[in-house]
Amino acid sequence: MNPKISKRIISTIKIVTFVATYAFLIYKLGFKTNWEEISHSIGSITTTKVLAIVFLLALTPLNWLVEAKKWQLLIRNVEPLTIKKSLTAVLAALCTGVITPNRTGEWAGRAMLLHEHHRGKGVMAAFYGSLAQNVATAFAGGIAAVLYFGMVNPADMNPNPALYKWPIFIITCSALVFFFLLPSFFTWWHPSNVYFRKLADTLAQYSHSEMVAILGVSVLKLSLYSLQFYIMLFIFGTGLTVFEGFAAIPLYFLLVSFVPVFSFTEPGVRGAVAYIVFTPIVAIAPATAVASVVLWIVNIALPTLVGSVYWIRNR
After folding, report:
1. Cα–Cα 20 to 30 A to 6, which of 153, 156, 215, 258?
2. Which residues contact 112 (CB under 8 A, 6 or more apart)?
3. Of the candidates 249, 268, 234, which has an alpha carbon nearest to the alpha carbon of residue 27?
């Protein structure tokens, strides 16, 4: 494809995504939302909510420590890192992620802080880490989807649950199988292309125990994010029950993960998806949209500012 045409297509997608998501949010939050109702749902600042806020904020550095541990596991066969250096790389790479769709630029950003001869394999290791996170999200989101559709569609309205249960089961299991078999595939495939050869060399080094550890850390990270979102929804007074949280929150992260987003559209996409997912189960759905954007600021925007300092120091 002509590079100019490709660039125009990407620019068009950016513009359409930006306009659609923010138009949706402006319409729903600006014209269809009673902000006094949201303010009332939040209520007064009680001791319980103060403790919840403190706990939520304390989970943010823990989230990034978990991600640093995952990067340490991913890269140790290529270039062993201390947890401090791993954390520095993870935070600094956020700066390269903001300019690419779904923050895929973080792969190159992390690799840039490795030794020059290890950068190609570093990108491949980062790719496998991202795959692990997507598999964990798909698996948890698939289970949540079954619970969610069973909750919002009673039996009399949805007489044949197998129509959505079996496809979800097959997709989630296929994702797990793909994750574990991918390194094994590269142990016998010897591609001639230099990039595929680097991918093969990197992935073939992972043992089954390492793959389990990487996936386990990815599940832990998703669990911490989900807990944070539940706490944020509690602070906003949405009245979401624990069961509803189990059903809706992983589904929300699943949808957000697989929607193509750019840095300037991500808050809008997160807010729009939250509004759509939580509307059937909470009385004040707009509060969930606002809560999702606030959580994005706490977990992504602020750490990116911290990461920019590391990026400047280590570039």
Report:
1. 258
2. 93, 96, 119, 315
3. 268
Task: Give the pLDDT confidence score for residue 190 in this predicted structure.
Answer: 65
In which residue are the tokens 């394999």 written?
121
Q: Distance (Å, rounded) from C-alpha 6 to C-alpha 99?
A: 17
Q: How far is CA 134 from CA 44, 50, 194, 221, 234, in A?
A: 38, 33, 26, 11, 26
| Four-point Cα dihedral 147, 151, 155, 158, nearest 10 | -80
- Count of alpha carbons within 13 angstroms of residue 50, beta-carbon side: 4
- CB atoms near residue 92 (< 10 Å): 25
User: Which 3 state secondary structure label does DSSP give 70?
Assistant: helix
Tokens 């998806």 belong to residue: 273
CA distance 32 to 309: 40
Checking if the pLDDT of 217 tops 60, the result is: yes
Q: What is the CB neighbour count within 10 angstroms for residue 313?
A: 9
Q: How high is the pLDDT of residue 176?
A: 87
Residues in CB range of 161: below 8 A, 6 or more apart? 146, 149, 150
Q: Is the pLDDT of residue 252 over 90?
A: yes
Contact between residue 132 and residue 213 where contact means Cβ atoms under 8 Å apart = no
Query: Residue 63 has what pLDDT?
Result: 94
Two tokens, residue 264: 């300037």
Question: 63-84 pLDDT, tens per residue?
Answer: 999 999 999 999 998 888 999 9
Question: Cα–Cα distance between 97 and 124 in angstroms, integer?
Answer: 16
Burial 94-119 (b: 16+ CB within 10 A, else e): bbbbbeebbbebbbbbbbbbbeeeeb
Rounded CA-CA distance 91/63 in Å is 11
Query: pTM to 2 decimals?
Result: 0.81
Q: How far apart are CA 303 and CA 91, in angstroms?
A: 7
Alpha helices, DSSP H, located in 153-207 = 162-188, 194-203
Mean of all residue pLDDT scores within the chain: 79
